[in-house]
Amino acid sequence: MDKKVKLIGAPSCFGQPRLGVDLGPDAIRYTNLVGRIKSLNVDIKDLGNIEAEKINVEIHSKEKNDNLRNLEEVIKFNEKLAKQVDEVVENGDFPFIIGGDHSIALGTLSGLSKHYENLGVIWYDAHGDLNDSKTSPSGNIHGMPLAQALGIGHEKLVNLYEDGVKIKPENVVLIGVRDLDEGEIEYIKENNILCFTMDDVARLGIGRVMEETVSYLKDKTDGIHLSLDVDGLDPQFTPGTGTPVVNGITLRETNQALTYLHDQDVISSFEIVEVNPLLDEKNKTAEVATYIAEVFFGKKYL
């Protein structure tokens, strides 16, 4: 990678009700994330954490905000994150964001979208995150950021940082999904979003999935963001996450996928989300997150 990497910690827990995911960025750092990436001859600088308000996410009301838990806190946090991401890209650097719950993706995509006419998105996740307040059974905004970036949902979220849609359905690829709500399935089908479920991964193999993903996005986008939720992997590899779903992608398959993306050199920004050390086993999930980052930035067996 010829760009300087700027690491941004995004310790948001506002998009869901579980305590601990706000500790994810520092749990990942604790594994010597920066040192391990520097050892790959990557120029990386840690910009620290975005400041987050302190609230009790378990009891904070969602009723006053149209079934959207912690709406105002999500907006405030993501506005700050979007500004930081915007500044990193404006300076010609590569933004690498570590979360925090997946609602931070709205801040990331909002900051990125200023710089791209056709931003592509690879959503590596067990979930589609394509709900809105009407289709969501929980009101948790971490299940909605992709929808909001596509222009669906609460006006304040859709128009976060700058007014308007941030990405287009034809520029999105979902990989590893296996827990979709009915409204999400309907949206994916209606908008013909390229979606590789776990059945597809098993049938095609992760190598072909990644080849088809890059082929689909490469020529029609001017940048590609990789948003990787650790629950995209099977819980045996990433137990420390709030919404684990069995029958997921293996660590070996993830290694292959990230190696391919590194070799293709098509990714312009990267985020890893949903590491929750309070649910983890001896910081195992944070270690896996760091290993994933190492592979993305060029770590190989030989």
Automatic annotation (TrEMBL):
On whether Manganese is a keyword of this UniProt record, the answer is yes
Annotated residues that bind Mn(2+) are located at 102, 125, 127, 129, 229, 231
Q: Which GO terms describe its cellular component?
A: cytoplasm
- What are the UniProt keywords, alphabetically? Arginine metabolism, Hydrolase, Manganese, Metal-binding
For this chain's record, the cofactor binding note is: Binds 2 manganese ions per subunit.
Instruction: Look at the named UniProt entry and state the broad enzyme category this protein falls under.
Output: hydrolase
The record's listing under SUPFAM superfamilies reads: Arginase/deacetylase
The UniProt entry, under InterPro entries, shows:
Arginase, Ureohydrolase, Ureohydrolase_dom_sf, Ureohydrolase_Mn_BS
Q: Which family does it belong to?
A: Belongs to the arginase family.
Question: What's the protein here called?
Answer: Arginase
Q: Which organism is the protein's source?
A: Abyssicoccus albus
